[in-house]
Amino acid sequence: MKVLQLIDSLEAGGAERVAVNIANALVTEVSGSYLCSTRKEGLLKASLDSKVGYLFLDKQGTFDLKAILKLKRFVKQEQIDIIHAHSSSYFTATLVKLLYPKVKIIWHDHYGNSEFLHQRPKQVLKLCSYFFNHVFSVNRLLASWAERKLYVKSVTYLPNFSVENKQSLVTQLKGVEGKRIVCLANLRPQKDHINLLHAFKAISYQHQDWTLHLVGKDFEDDYSNTVKQHIVDLKLSNQVFIYGSCPDTSAILQHCDIGVLSSKSEGLPLALLEYGLASLPTIATNVGQCKEVIIDEQTGLLVPSENIEALSNTLEYFINNPSKREVLGHSLYLHIDKNFSKKAIISTIKGIYSNFVPH
């Protein structure tokens, strides 16, 4: 069996990390593991296993015929059985299938705004879903939505998994050792950094030596500008730091003391799994499948989304209770290791693949 992971970029986002993690994990599990980035390369290219067959399309538009033909030739030449298309790359996969009907398509839905599915554009996706053999959804809301709205009946809820990655710290972290709060999330509106900034401001008066570190891609757009303006307006420039995408996130987490995610909407965030692998005591909003990772008061603390007071009170509690932080950080590590391990998730993926490719 030969499988190609298809993703639009290799920037440091959740869907991109999952595509790379699956491609790397399949190297020893299938006869050929491949990854194709359609539009952009990025930081994650460096973490791709050397045994993964790699193709960069440099696709220049929605209907870039030259790129589509290049991918079709690659799929045919390498005798690839399955295109495992992540997020919006399903459209490219569908065009390839129209030219090469033999290939199977599995679509992996990482949609981050799953709390607002009524706003999701779906006409093109619905049409393309005629050609899907299966759908993986990163949370149960998305799985239910796919079963109701798409022309595919074979749907599986598939939690994300993360991979322990021993890295050296190359990012110059600001702040005092032992007093760092980290938020690992690209600067996107659904991650609601604004709520986090207000919550942090509320505790900053009493804890002026604590700092907040925002790690994730900065798209330098209106939302990014709003976040930066809030930092200035709230007079937090000496306590809140933006790093953008970093190649050493696992090392950064090892040098932080509390992990937080203040999202309005989520799938199953990879950030929470990475916090767990770093044994970070974690606070998350109760959206998407966060509650499957952060079981309140057992593996971390959950708060309602868009609630500044609840988040600030919980941050205050963690700061004042280092022994509780240690217990919950260790419990989260054990929970991730048992329930979101590479071995369990890859076994599920392979089982689905084998339904569509003869042995």
Give a written overview of the molecule.
With 359 residues, the protein is α/β, with parallel strands linked by helices. The protein has helices at 14-26, 65-77, 90-99, 123-128, 140-149, 193-204, 222-233, 249-254, 270-277, 290-293, 308-320, 322-339, 342-356; strands at 2-7, 32-37, 53-56, 82-86, 104-109, 134-137, 155-157, 180-184, 211-215, 240-244, 258-261, 282-285, 301-303. Helix 3 (90-99) links the parallel strand 4 and strand 5.
Topology:
Elements: E1 2-7, H1 14-26, E2 32-37, E3 53-56, H2 65-77, E4 82-86, H3 90-99, E5 104-109, H4 123-128, E6 134-137, H5 140-149, E7 155-157, E8 180-184, H6 193-204, E9 211-215, H7 222-233, E10 240-244, H8 249-254, E11 258-261, H9 270-277, E12 282-285, H10 290-293, E13 301-303, H11 308-320, H12 322-339, H13 342-356
Helix pairs in contact: 2-3, 6-11, 9-12
Report a brief summary of the structure.
With 359 residues, the chain is of the alpha/beta class.
* Unreliable sequence segments: none
Overall spatial form: elongated
| Total beta strand runs | 13
Helix coverage percent: 25-40%
**Global Rg:** 21 Å
End-to-end separation in angstroms reads 8 Å
User: Secondary-structure element order, as H and E?
Assistant: EHEEHEHEHEHEEHEHEHEHEHEHHH
Overall average residue pLDDT: 94
Structural class: alpha/beta
| Beta-strand proportion | 15-25%
For the report, how would you describe the main beta sheet?
7 strands, parallel
Largest sheet strand order: 3-2-1-4-5-6-7
Number of helices: 13
